[in-house]
């Protein structure tokens, strides 16, 4: 089996890591706008509002807001069939709860989608990619508050109605399951808009689970609204897929792997199957976690299941049981161990192409939904030679091996795969560290961690390589 003839080859980004223009066109302040620059091993800080003198790399990012026409021309030169990006919620509803949307923000995406379509590139759009308005965070406490369900659905409805003839492929929430690591303040504000107070620390896990359930309800309700507006919409979820292997063949480690996969991927079970899985309900009962969900909301989950499953894949994890743990309850901050069988990047991300094939099979076996790989890439420090060339063979090797694993899952196991949009076709701000030097792109952007640089674009060696991959529909890597 070869890849389908209409396979969606392309690249993926997020608005807040790419666009810049953080105060232009009526845009409000998002959670990304109050995150400072970090570094390898140094987390980004979340400040109380925007503080003068701090370095907020997302404010300018790589200024796609003013460069999008030229950047899309470069994507078209590579032969892109699809471009996955997000709509910045704060461009449409600057505070998140306005009565009417911001027309200037809506028009920016009209113009950008028109430019993509003019070049034969399918927009693949995420509604909420770590972009929650700070107005919602400050006024409502993020998705821990059920009122935010209606605010999200209203925002989704506006986007669906406005772009119903321009966008076919949608995703609701990006990497909703990152908050499995609920002890991470970074993940809680990115995923759910939650800033945990000192008084809330004892119930931090409860807050995460309630917020996640509310997001799943919002996603299902938005999916129902979208299908009413245009029955031809393909509306999917987006899951961060890092398969968690057992560290050894000890039965206890095998069961620890089962517990880890339960904790990381119950979100996908709700998206795809429409109900809360028994294992997560049993965990809540065991831990005394009380979730506010009505029978009506359970019916929304049941009816609003996804059309396809989108996911990111960068690396695999491994786990081993730690002491007495009869429930094999996975704690991501405690139970991950190093897998000595695979190498790692400079940032400690384990490089495991076979894990992508495993992931495709795991999702296919569990849900039997069409899939799209919407993030897969290699962050590295690139060196610009004296003649301006950039020889990023390490990136080509990473992508070649992962694309081969993807093809093997189609050829050998028959998984149903719609497309592959690698992360990221152009250098952007790293979401995890806020760095520019952690580069992913085929297109180099002259910008440094401190914000200096000309923003000039140039092609790396991988640019022509990926162009040929698309030309041959993945037959020649």
Automatic annotation (TrEMBL):
PANTHER family: ARYL-PHOSPHO-BETA-D-GLUCOSIDASE BGLA (PTHR10353:SF85), GLYCOSYL HYDROLASE (PTHR10353)
Protein's organism: Ileibacterium valens
Protein name: 6-phospho-beta-glucosidase
Family: Belongs to the glycosyl hydrolase 1 family.
Keywords of this entry: Glycosidase, Hydrolase
Annotated Gene3D superfamilies: Glycosidases
Recorded GO CC terms: cytosol
TM regions (residue ranges): none
Entry keyword annotation includes Nucleotide-binding: no
Pfam families: Glyco_hydro_1
MF GO annotations: beta-glucosidase activity
One of the GO biological process terms: carbohydrate catabolic process
């Amino acid at each position: 089996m070869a890849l389908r003839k209409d396979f969606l080859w392309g690249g993926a980004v997020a608005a807040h890591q790419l666009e810049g223009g953080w105060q232009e066109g009526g845009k409000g302040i998002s959670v990304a706008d109050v995150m400072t620059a970090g570094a390898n091993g140094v987390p980004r800080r979340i400040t109380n509002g925007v503080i003068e003198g701090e370095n907020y790399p997302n404010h300018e990012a790589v200024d796609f807001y003013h460069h999008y026409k030229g950047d899309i021309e470069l994507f078209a030169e590579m032969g892109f069939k699809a471009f996955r990006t997000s709509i910045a919620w704060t461009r449409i509803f600057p505070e998140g709860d306005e009565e009417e949307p911001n027309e200037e923000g809506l028009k920016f995406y009209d113009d950008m989608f028109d430019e993509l379509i003019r070049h034969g590139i399918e927009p693949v759009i995420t509604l909420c990619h770590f972009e929650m308005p700070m107005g919602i965070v400050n006024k409502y406490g993020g998705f821990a508050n059920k009122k935010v369900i209606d605010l999200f659905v209203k925002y989704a409805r506006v986007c669906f109605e406005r772009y119903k003839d321009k966008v076919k492929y949608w995703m609701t929430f990006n990497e909703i399951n990152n908050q499995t690591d609920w002890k991470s303040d970074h993940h809680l504000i990115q995923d759910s808009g939650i800033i945990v107070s000192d008084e809330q620390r004892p119930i931090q896990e409860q807050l995460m689970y309630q917020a996640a359930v509310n997001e799943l309800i919002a996603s299902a309700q938005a999916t129902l609204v979208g299908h009413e507006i245009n029955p031809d919409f393909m509306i999917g979820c987006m899951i961060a897929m890092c398969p968690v292997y057992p560290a050894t063949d000890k039965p206890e480690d095998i069961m620890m792997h089962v517990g880890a996969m339960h904790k990381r991927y119950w979100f996908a079970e709700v998206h795809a199957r429409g109900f809360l899985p028994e294992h997560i309900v049993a965990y809540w009962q065991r831990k005394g976690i009380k979730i506010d969900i009505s029978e009506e909301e359970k019916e929304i989950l049941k009816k609003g299941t996804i059309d396809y499953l989108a996911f990111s894949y960068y690396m695999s994890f491994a786990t081993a049981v730690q002491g007495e743990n009869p429930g094999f309850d996975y704690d991501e901050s405690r139970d991950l161990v190093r897998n000595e069988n695979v190498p790692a990047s400079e940032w400690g991300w384990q490089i495991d192409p076979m894990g992508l094939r495993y992931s495709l099979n795991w999702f296919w076996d569990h849900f039997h939904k069409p899939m799209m790989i919407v993030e897969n890439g290699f962050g590295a420090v690139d060196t610009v030679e004296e003649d301006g060339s950039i020889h990023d063979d390490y990136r080509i090797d990473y992508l070649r091996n992962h694309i081969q694993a993807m093809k093997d899952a189609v050829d050998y196991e028959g998984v149903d795969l719609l497309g592959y949009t690698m992360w990221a076709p152009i250098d952007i701000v790293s979401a995890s560290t806020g760095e520019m030097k952690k580069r992913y792109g085929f297109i180099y952007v002259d910008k440094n961690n401190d914000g200096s640089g000309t923003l000039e674009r140039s092609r790396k060696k991988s640019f022509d390589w990926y162009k040929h991959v698309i030309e041959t529909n993945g037959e020649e890597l």
